[in-house]
Amino acid sequence: MREAVVVEAVRTAVGKRNGGLAGVHAADLSAVVLQALVDRTGLDPELVDDVVWGCVGQLGDQSSNIGRYAVLAAGWPETIPGTTVNRACGSSQQALDFAAQAVMSGQQDVVVAGGVEVMSRVPLGASRAGGMPYGPQVLARYEDFSFNQGVSAELIARKWGLGRAVLDEFAALSHERAAAAQDGGAFDAQIVPVTDGTGGTVTDGTGGTVTADEGIRRGTSNATLAKLKPSFQEDGVIHAGNSSQISDGAAALLVTTPEKARELGLTPIARYRAGVVTGSDPVLMLTGPIPATEKVLRKAGVALSEVGVFEVNEAFAPIPLAWLAETGANPDLLNPLGGAIALGHPLGASGAVLMTRMLHHMRDHGIRYGLQTMCEGGGTANATVVELAS
């Protein structure tokens, strides 16, 4: 079987709800990162066999195969196809898996993977309006559980004995690490500037260009978070401050073979070692990263101790903390640049955003192996291992 490599990874800054990216259509935001791949690599878009694009809220601005309209918005040839993937929060991580699988199988040679979500324009849960996606048989199987992720996060916190102080401490650390990364320039090379669409300027306060992640709240502490009320249960421990932020953003990765990269004069960032997806208890819902991690390490033939960075999506603070407790991973290697609590979670884009952050971090610090995993609605999870190219 052929090998797959990632030769470029780019993202927009992650905009906060109703922030700098709220005025940008999802197709246009996607076009920014697609065009950035071309600008940075010199790739002729005619060589792209497919664009696999993650998106969760596939209605309104994001309906009717946003992956295809992203290609057209980027000005790429009409002959380049695009498709849209929905595996909940793991959509664009699944897009990367599909792209790598297509390349490794020999069916395709150059594939773009990524995703987009503009939650300011297509609100969280909008696709469920007036409907019940689970159906009566699913509800009966799980005793009419609400399938509410916040409630599931509360159940996880209770099962692993994670009190509010511990969760808030983790949330504050996410902001601290993200602020340090931003101040240290860790994100600069990976972020593509986006004009916010207002026609204004930064100086007159009416708009401009978005170049930095907007969700970081400097000075966040246990004391500031203690003021927030629980969001899902009156006596609960989950609140807005230890949950991921509603966000806008897009990211894209260029996947090919080492041979094709060499032919095109491109230098791989990393090899795709293994990718898996697994199902888990849909009531706890968000614990899938635990078995997915074990499964992907086994498939990759890599020991946990060999991994130098872990990206575990911070949908809610209990998720990475329960993962940490079960895997025994080094906490210093977990989300070293902060996570979705500080940097935001633009659903369909998050898998590609996290992978972009991780790949650049690996290259900047000479880290051989990285592992990324995402919990997902409905009780599934993706996990991917990549190896820094030599």
From TrEMBL:
* Family the UniProt entry places it in: Belongs to the thiolase-like superfamily. Thiolase family.
Record carries keyword Transferase? yes
Q: Which residues form the Thiolase N-terminal domain?
A: 5-257
In Swiss-Prot or TrEMBL terms, this protein is called Thiolase family protein
**Does the UniProt entry include the keyword Transferase?**
yes
Instruction: Indicate the segments forming the Thiolase C-terminal domain, all copies.
Output: 267-387
Which keywords, in A-to-Z order, does the entry hold? Acyltransferase, Transferase
